[in-house]
Amino acid sequence: MLKQLPLKKEYLLVAAAILLLLISYQLAFKKTIEAWQLNTGLKHQLAQSTDVSYQPGYLERKNANLSNILKLYKADTVDFRSNIIGTISAIAEKENVKLTGVPTQDPFYHTPQFIIQKLDFEGDYFALIKTLKQLQGAKGIGLVRAVTFKTSVINSSSDKAKKLLLEVYLEMASE
């Protein structure tokens, strides 16, 4: 039947190529061209508008949030021995935990921006966890940087006793 039509094969090849081009345009190229046009239109609108990157309200909110975060880190390092140790020992006493290790001025833990203080606590697990939670919520003593639980065995003449120790590293901004 196709042989009886008075068309040449070259014409059929051209018609098939045009048909293939139309189908591929509808299925693939049309969406790509629309996305490219949308992109160029949005770039043109952005270039015409004022500088959108400068938003003073956003910058003020961001600055206030960063200041609030930094307040959590700040503690008066001069008063650390008196006021903050008193606060920490009061928290420990409330939970029946012993503050066994008072920080020393170790230059290994000092950086130009931050000071890290190591505190040692002794008690049972649940009391230590409650103390740790209260230390994390306390303001003005710095933030908890690292926590380590350790057990130690005390050999006495009659029996062995195990102690649970908690090492807490507090980080604060140096002023």
Overview of the structural elements:
With 175 residues, the chain is α+β, with helices and mostly antiparallel strands. The chain has 2 domains: 10-40; 76-173, 2-Layer Sandwich (Alpha-Beta Plaits). The protein has helices spanning 9-48, 56-73, 80-94, 125-137; strands at residues 98-101, 114-122, 143-155, 160-173. The protein has a 4-stranded antiparallel β-sheet with strand order 1-2-4-3. β3 (143-155) and β4 (160-173) form a beta hairpin. The chain is elongated, with a radius of gyration of 36 Å.
Shape: elongated
Overall mean pLDDT stands at 80
> Segments where pLDDT lies below 50 for 5+ residues?
none
Task: Give the CATH topology of the largest domain.
Answer: Alpha-Beta Plaits
